[in-house]
Design goal:
By secondary structure, the protein is α/β, with parallel strands linked by helices. It has twelve helices and twelve strands. It folds into two domains: 72 residues, Alpha-Beta Plaits, CATH 3.30.70; 216 residues, HAD superfamily/HAD-like (Rossmann fold), CATH 3.40.50.1000. It is elongated, with a radius of gyration of 20 Å.
Length: 291
C-alpha cells in the first residue's frame, strides 16, 4: 500500500476538496483524510500510478505538492537536516560575504556549487578566502540581524522529538551558525565546518577535513549505527547538490525548495510547502503538531 499526500503552502493555502476528490477518484484511492484544512490531505493507494509525475507537474502549476510514499514505517525515528536554505532561509557564507563587500561574487559561486556545477570543497575554500581579515564579530552580527528560520522548523523538530526521534543538523556551512540554529530549534547534535580565526579576524581558511557531501553520508551512517537505527528509519532534508548522497541513502530523502538539478534526482520534492510538509508526509495531522 501507498499513501498519496497533497499539500500546499500554509501561508497561502491552495488545496480544495474538489482537487483531492478528483485525484482520489481517478486513481481509485481510499477515503481522503484531511491533515489540515486547505493545507494537506492524504488517501491510500494500492499501487503507484503510472502517471504520477505528469499529475505532479499539473499540480505544481496550482501551487500544490504531491508525494507518494509506502504506507509502512512512515513516521521516521531520525531527522538529518541541512542548514543553509533548509532550516534557515539564507546561505550563511553569502551573508558574511555581503557584509565583507564581496557578496555578488560569493553568491555566484554558492549558486553554482549548490547546482553541482562546481566541486564543493574547492568552491568553499575559494569563498572563505574572500572573507580573509573580516572581523570575527561580524558572525554574531549576521546571526542577530540577517538569519531567519525556515517556517515550520520549530514544529518539525518539536513534533518528531516528542515522538521519540533523534535530530541531527549536518551542514557544509559553519559551526558558528549551526550551534545557534541547533540550540534554538532543539537539534540533538550538529556538525559543520570551522571558520579559522586569529587575533579576532578570519584567516580566510577553514579547518580540515572539510565537511561536504561524503561527510553528510558518513554522518548518517555513523549516527544510525550509534543509535541502532536502519537507514530506512531516517528522514533527510536538503536543497543542494552536496545533500544528494544523504538524501539518496535515507529512507525518505526530501528535496526542499531545491535546485532543479537536485530535485530531479529525488522522489520527494517539496516546492510549495514549508518544513511542516515533512510532518504531513509522515502522517501527522496539524492537530498532532507540538508547539
Amino acid at each position: 500500500m501507498f499513501i498519496a499526500t497533497l499539500l500546499t503552502s500554509p501561508a497561502n493555502p491552495a488545496l480544495d476538496a474538489a482537487t483531492v476528490e478528483n485525484l482520489r477518484n481517478a486513481w481509485g484511492g481510499g477515503t481522503a483524510q484531511w491533515l489540515a484544512t486547505g493545507e494537506a490531505a492524504e488517501f491510500s493507494l494500492a499501487q503507484k500510478p503510472d502517471n504520477q509525475w505528469d499529475v505532479w507537474a499539473d499540480l505544481q502549476t496550482l501551487g500544490i505538492d504531491l508525494i507518494i510514499l509506502p504506507a509502512e514505517e512512515r513516521q521516521k525515528k531520525m531527522l538529518l537536516a541541512d542548514m543553509d536554505s533548509t532550516m534557515i532561509e539564507q546561505e550563511c557564507i553569502d551573508e558574511l560575504a555581503d557584509v565583507a563587500g564581496v557578496g555578488a561574487r560569493v553568491k555566484d559561486i554558492t549558486a553554482r556549487a549548490m547546482n553541482g556545477e562546481l566541486d564543493f570543497e574547492g568552491a568553499l575554500t575559494e569563498r572563505v578566502g574572500l572573507l580573509k581579515d573580516l572581523d570575527e564579530s561580524v558572525i554574531s552580527e549576521v546571526i542577530d540581524t540577517r538569519i531567519s528560520f525556515m517556517p515550520g522548523g520549530k514544529a518539525l523538530l518539536a513534533t518528531m522529538k516528542a515522538n521519540g526521534a533523534y535530530a541531527a543538523l549536518v551542514s557544509g556551512g559553519f559551526t558558528a551558525f549551526t550551534g545557534h540554529v541547533a540550540a534554538t530549534l532543539g537539534f540533538d547534535e550538529n556538525r559543520a565546518n570551522t571558520l579559522l580565526v586569529e587575533n579576532g579576524k578570519l584567516t580566510g581558511d577553514v579547518g580540515r577535513p572539510i565537511l561536504g557531501r561524503e561527510a553528510k553520508v558518513s554522518a548518517l551512517k555513523e549516527i544510525t549505527e550509534r543509535l541502532g537505527l536502519s537507514h530506512d528509519e531516517v528522514m533527510a532534508v536538503g536543497d543542494g547538490a552536496n545533500d544528494l548522497g544523504m538524501l539518496g541513502l535515507a529512507g525518505a530523502g526530501v528535496a526542499l525548495h531545491a535546485k532543479p538539478s537536485v530535485a530531479a534526482e529525488c522522489d520527494i520534492r517539496i516546492n510549495h510547502g514549508d518544513l511542516t510538509a515533512l510532518l504531513y508526509i509522515q502522517g501527522y495531522a496539524k492537530s498532532d503538531f507540538v508547539a
